[in-house]
Amino acid sequence: MTRKPPAPPCLIALPCLTAVLFLTAALLLVAAPASAQPDRIEKALRQERSKADERKTAVQQLSARERTLAAQLAEVEKRAKVAQERIQKQQTELDTLRQEEAVYAAQYNVVRVRREQSARELRKLLEALWPLHAQGMHEGARLSDSWDASDRRFQWTSSVYAHVRAKLEDVRRQERELAEVLARQKQLEAQADRQLAAINAEKDTLLRDQLALNSHVRAVSAQRRDLESELQDILKSIQQLNYQLASQRTRKFESFKSTLPWPSQGRVVTSFSPDGRPPRRGLGIATAEAAPVRSIFWGKVVHSDVLRGLGKVVIVYHGDNYYSLYAYLAEVDVRAGQEVEKDEPLGQAGYYPEARSSGVYFELRFHQKPINPQLWLAPGH
Predict the structure, then answer these.
(1) pLDDT 10s digits, 6-25
(2) Sign of the alpha-carbon dihedral angle for 271, 274, 280, 283
(3) Which of 4, 94, 103, 183, by CA, is between 20 and 30 Å from 304?
(4) Cβ 10 vs Cβ 278: under 8 Å
């Protein structure tokens, strides 16, 4: 749909002059010298490379530390394997001790039962012998009616005494045996306890060593991964800075004279005529409605706002004091300070009074002075 055209502002000299002066002031305020940009990039590159070298050194040191810890852990695991074999052997010996201890415990019970039985028999003998002994001591030979009877009594008594002595000796021997068995049992228990304590202590030591080393390895590995991640980010930043530096060094505006793309597809309705009446400092292009308007070169947006007499305006600084201006935009897609690529959309064409339809007004400037865009844009349009 064709919009109703307002009064053509650029046909009036004073409003156009005011707009241009306003534009020039804006350019002077926001433009930065192009020669400083590569210096800033090179400075940033040096800083990033220094950080990358630091991270690489740190990663190498952590990797070496990680290898050392891994070797220590392998040594501990080797010791653990040997210790496990030794522990298994000690465990077998401990089992043997426990079995021997059980045998002595059973033997102790047997000896204890025998000793108790012998003690009971001895008590019975003593109980039977004591009245005869007491009576004999009291009456002497009067108890005997004859020598033969006295001799038989004597022989019987002697036999009983001998049996008592033997039984008493047997009880004493059993007590000694019982004491020896008990001592051996206690010795075996103490040995088994020491053996078990040594096994547990060795297990605990190896476990502590393994846990400490594993924890240290995990911490070093995590630190190394963090540094490697930082290093990758720094290397990406260096790559981007190298790209920007190469772009700044190779993207010289003057090297692309007569090859630059047109800001928008359309028909030229006003040409460059700074001495005309009224003066025209750029090109007027009639376009399709809402046609895209693109940057003709790499650069940085230094203005994205309304300028009196020109509507919505985008100004891009291309370095080396070259600027491009795009006016009468209906929509703007970029903001001041934004870097743009060649052919990147800046906005959409709006109503252009000179075309009495949709279009864009385009200027090129060098050192704030307008230059003929048609000498710079690619021919054949």
Answers:
(1) 433 343 333 443 444 344 44
(2) positive
(3) 4
(4) yes
Q: What is the 3-state secondary structure (H, E, C) of 50-88?
A: HHHHHHHHHHHHHHHHHHHHHHHHHHHHHHHHHHHHHHH
Alpha-carbon distance of 263 to 283, in angstroms, equals: 10
Q: Which domains does the chain have, with CATH numbers?
A: 56-233 (1.10.287.1490), 254-375 (2.70.70.10)
d(CA 311, CA 306): 5
Q: How far apart are CA 98 and CA 76, in angstroms?
A: 31
Return all residues near 299 (Cβ < 8 A) that are at least 6 apart.
316, 317, 318, 319, 324, 339, 340
Distance, CA of 92 to CA of 85 (rounded, Å): 11
**CB neighbourhood size of 263 (10 A):** 27
Is residue 146 packed enough to be buried (19+ CB in 10 Å), middle (13-18) or exposed (0-12)? exposed
Overall residue count recorded for the chain in this entry: 381
